[in-house]
Here is the input.
Amino acid sequence: MDTIQSYIKANKDRFINELVELLKIPSISADSNYKNEVLNTAQAVKLSLERAGCERVEICETDGHPIVYGEKIIHTDLPTVLVYGHYDVQPPDPLDLWHSPPFEPVIQTTDKHPEGAIFARGASDDKGQMFMHVKAMELMTSTNQLPCNVKFMIEGEEEVGSSNLSIFVKNHREKLKNDVILISDTGMIANDTPSITTGLRGLSYVEVEVTGPNRDLHSGLYGGAVANPINILSKMIASMHDENNHITIPGFYDKVEELSDMERAEMAKAPFNLENYKKALNIDAVHGEAGYSTHERTSIRPTLDVNGIWGGYTGEGAKTVIPSKAYAKISMRLVPHQNWEEITRLFTAYFERIAPKGVTVKVSPHHGGQGYVTPIDHIGYQAASKAYTDTFGKTPIPQRSGGSIPIVSLFEKELKSKTILMGFGLDSDAIHSPNEHFGIFNFLKGIETIPLFFKYFTQLSKE
Ligand code: BES
Ligand code: MN
Ligand code: MN
Here is the structure.
């Protein structure tokens, strides 16, 4: 057995226990009640980086939650890998759907994870995946095989849009200088079908408010005579897709990158079973843009989805009321070349234009970001591919993902480097959902694969 495998074998129980401890801290970035817990998590991450052999480890204050930075510079002639991850997590609700409390990790086996999986909020997104890098670093420094320079930047605001990290990156270009950025915050196809994420979608997120009468009204006395904001909002939202599920906002598709038939044929080779997909979600049919496969709909095509809608009376029993206001949160997933700020403007103009007389509307943009693509001829991709081939015994499949990590395109713009997305999660990990989990197999495979990425990247950099 080689040193990587024997180190993991000898230390895996400790690795798992340390991750369990990290998962116990509820680092919910969206909820200000958890500010201290987020800070405590940053401190725990700092300590773990120091123990893994990083130097100059610091907690960098921001206007929001802090960023943890650490590095190990061996020699300025060697390449530098910047590892990015996030220690913040999504809110865990709805709590009653969890089989065990979200911040009391338990290990249980599942069909997909006969070796067991850790169930906790953040297990896969992203504490578990981020921690693979910390343990891989520990492995490389303790076994004397760190081949190049490393910088770690672990933030606490990814789940709320990374706006303070953007400022930090712009202000610390020299400190963050690197040859490649490495992130494990995505997934792969299956445990026996490794894949490397080569694309992320962009995002535009807005909140809309529709106001009708100046107060809630009796729905008998006024019903039928004034615009009901919820009725109107529902109709406006419904009109944003046509009968082919194309988005109707003028100009929305103007910059969308159209893939060639060859590229689409290449994509279609990735294994995908529609029946299993439907079964896993308990749905009798998929639904989406005409002319595109399910996989294309979730990767190379943009979307518009309502994430939440409310207004009027939603309490127990019935209340006969025409509400004064209706609200919705809407996200648009974007593909390369669509500019998120332009899409936000197009949405706003269209939403204002289709609002009928009798209501007023307000659109408030939240966060957003650009999509991203990694070219597979980049040496970082090749190094990752070689690393997976060694540890999985199969060449990984390049695959674009439907999710977003908006900071990645900003890294490219500000730091001029490409990002390699070595994700070890599965779609079935239930990230952002109740019962999020991360396979022990995936966690350990990540720790095994990462040092090989470092080795191959350093080798390919010399060529
Ligand atoms: N790690 C995810 C993104 C992801 C997951 C990409 C799986 C690809 C595969 C990340 O933490 C996330 O949730 N991003 C948000 C965007 C952010 C601005 C809140 C998303 O995609 O909704
Ligand atoms: Mn994430
Ligand atoms: Mn997330």
About this structure: Residues 90, 125, 159, 431-432 surround manganese (II) ion (ligand 3) (CB under 6 Å). The mean pLDDT is 97. The longest helix spans residues 440-462. The longest strand covers residues 202-211.
